[in-house]
Amino acid sequence: MMQLADVLLDAGYAVVVALIDPADKEDVAFAAVVRRVAASKPLVAFHKLPRIEDPPTVIHDAQFILRYLDLVSRYDKLLHGFLCAMPLGSVQAVVVDAFSSGALDVAKKLGIPAYSFYATNASTVAVFLQLPTICREDQPSFRELGDTPLNFHGVPPMPASHLVEEVLRDPESEVYKVMIDGFRRIPEAVDGILVNTFTSLETRAVEALGDLRLRHLPAMPPVYYVGPLLAGAGKEKEKHECLSWLDEQPERSVVYLCFGSIGTGNHSREQLNEIAVGLENSGHRFLWVVRAPPSDDPERPSDHRTDPDLDELLPDGFLDRINGRGLILKLWAPQVEKMNKVFMVEEAGIGVEVAGWQQGLVKAGEVEAKVRMVLESEEGERLRAQVTALSKAAAAAWEDGGSSRVAFQRFISDAEKLKAQAMRA
Fold first, then answer.
1. Exposure winner among 7, 96, 293, 420, fewest CB in 10 A?
2. Mean pLDDT, the chain, as a whole number?
3. Which domains does the chain have, with CATH numbers?
């Protein structure tokens, strides 16, 4: 989302980011990230909405998504007040993340163009839009289907077990109903969908979304493929330590491991040790983002220490033995894209599947084998060549006349037209 803010600033627009308060107590890690981002984006105005009374406790259990959506929805009234307090006609558009449907409703009521932003990929959007049709009342739950392939238009066949965990639950559960209803509302709730991808990366998914709009979802708004959003990458006040370290390594010699804001924090100590041993035994250079495992407190399993103790989490002497050829970061690295296994391995051809993840533990030997495969084999060379080709295509997408630049300009033009229509009404 902050990369989108950079592009909007470059286009001459003022950007205001409205933030909600953490659920039930001060989230030190989140606050630190906000401070860091705010310091690096002096032209972006950050506004923290007032804390709501008695916020729900958001923990990663079976009801996590319900609690999270409840928390976000309670800020809708505060967001409404904040937008109303801004100078009349000054807000050109509201852009929210995929799970803030209430904020879209607030914008609509005020006559402000509303857009949903997906930091994932077009394949994910295509799956979400088709789920309500696939989830029929007479069909067994996805959990019961196990690894049965599901056929989504524009996406390689995907095992049912690979879908969002909340969607796998009993069709009669409240979580299931809320998720599917949210996906069903996407076409009617927004004036447009922004996706952090580019057309040549996901040709099949882009064509599928166009077909869905023409044939199956006539009310579906336009989709703007405006990625990769990297505009702020070169504007940081200081170069991140990992980038300086990478500059010192031989070309194409480093393996990068990062499992996203959720996956990074859900690894057990046992899994962290297996990864460490596999990386060490591979003999190759690596960059690894590590977050402390979830808390043992059953009431707060999603709590994490802000600054994990790497000596405590990783094998004895590991940090000394890998010094010079491995770099470990705590909590964060300047990444901007997360993609799922089916897309990376089967569609884009830029990844390999690691065995054992479905059983809950990837062994050290598997980590070592896949690192060696990527960096030592002919198949690994093919993967690296594909990554290089896509990197060039990504750069071309934002050049003058490139697909993403054209899509962004169309988004700006469409939003301005909608705003003008609302002002005349």
1. 420
2. 82
3. 2-231+398-424 (3.40.50.2000), 241-392 (3.40.50.2000)
